[in-house]
Backbone:
């Protein structure tokens, strides 16, 4: 692997990675200096600015539509503006808990971005709140011991023409979920408390994802919230199972089946069969309650 870089306060600023993998891991040091920053347009399909230093013999730039996943070292503290601009196939970014500086337009046009993975305890201080602020689309966050789904939201500025006043409006519960922090620490109780309001306006698909993630990784999940999530999944078991069947997720499907009634089980078994997933069908049918056998007494004979 090769790279372009330049010195910066605290170490080195990475300007470009060179290599043949679409899923690169950024090195922790460059010529003995810790990699402290991702430079502007680091993974974007843009020319490297003049004067950058270079190491390695690779020539292929890891940029744009070639990039699928990026893993950052714990040394990184700053993601400069447009670092992932136009990486349309980027699915996942893994980073440490110490990133605290975020530029603008970080993930512009990253339309397939699905997951942020933070190497941090679920209740540890991180830069997650600021990171989520850079993405208004659906995004899953993985922490050590917890997984959370943040739905999309939209912001609008509507002009009141005669008065030249702009009204700021927000649509979607994703914005509310992104505010469930105390400083830089995620507050799970606040996140869970947002679910009843989300049930008013969010789709069934979105609500199933929120509930399922919390039940599968129940970090700091209070009994009341657990009951609310369980009741929702029990009432929408077939819908919750659909994406699990598509990705062959047996672990999560087992949780849904524990909550499903017999009619929902039949629907899930049929969906497994139609998708050609024999293991899912067996899992669904195998978990059905056995029928009571009829007993006979002497008079029946």
Residues:
């Amino acid at each position: 692997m090769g790279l372009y870089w330049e010195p910066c306060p605290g170490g080195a600023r990475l300007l470009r990675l060179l290599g043949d993998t679409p899923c690169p891991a950024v090195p922790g040091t460059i010529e003995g200096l810790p990699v402290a920053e991702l430079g502007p347009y680091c993974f974007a399909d843009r020319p490297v600015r003049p004067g950058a230093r270079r190491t390695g013999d690779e020539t292929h730039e890891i940029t744009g539509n070639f990039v699928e996943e990026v893993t950052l070292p714990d040394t990184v503290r700053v993601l400069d503006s447009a670092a992932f601009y136009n990486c349309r196939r980027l699915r996942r970014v893994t980073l440490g808990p110490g990133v605290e500086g975020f530029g603008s337009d970080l993930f512009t046009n990253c339309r397939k971005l699905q997951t942020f993975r933070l190497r941090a305890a679920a209740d540890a201080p991180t830069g997650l709140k600021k990171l989520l602020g850079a993405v208004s689309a659906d995004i899953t966050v993985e922490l050590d011991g917890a997984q959370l789904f943040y739905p999309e939201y939209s912001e609008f500025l509507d002009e009141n023409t005669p008065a030249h006043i702009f009204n700021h409006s927000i649509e979607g519960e994703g914005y509310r979920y992104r505010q469930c922090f105390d400083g830089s620490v995620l507050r799970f109780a606040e996140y869970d408390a947002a679910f009843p309001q989300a049930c008013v306006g969010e789709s069934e698909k979105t609500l199933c994802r929120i509930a399922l993630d919390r039940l599968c990784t129940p970090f700091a999940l209070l009994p009341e919230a657990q009951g609310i999530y369980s009741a929702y999944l029990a009432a929408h078991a077939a819908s919750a199972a659909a994406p699990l069947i598509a990705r062959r997720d047996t672990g999560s499907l087992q949780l849904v089946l524990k909550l499903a009634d017999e009619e929902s089980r039949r629907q899930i078994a049929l969906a497994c069969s139609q998708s050609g997933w024999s293991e899912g069908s067996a899992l669904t049918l195998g978990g059905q309650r056995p029928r009571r056998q009829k007993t006979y007494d002497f008079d029946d004979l």
Summary: The longest strand covers residues 11-18. Residues 288-293 have pLDDT under 50 and may be disordered.
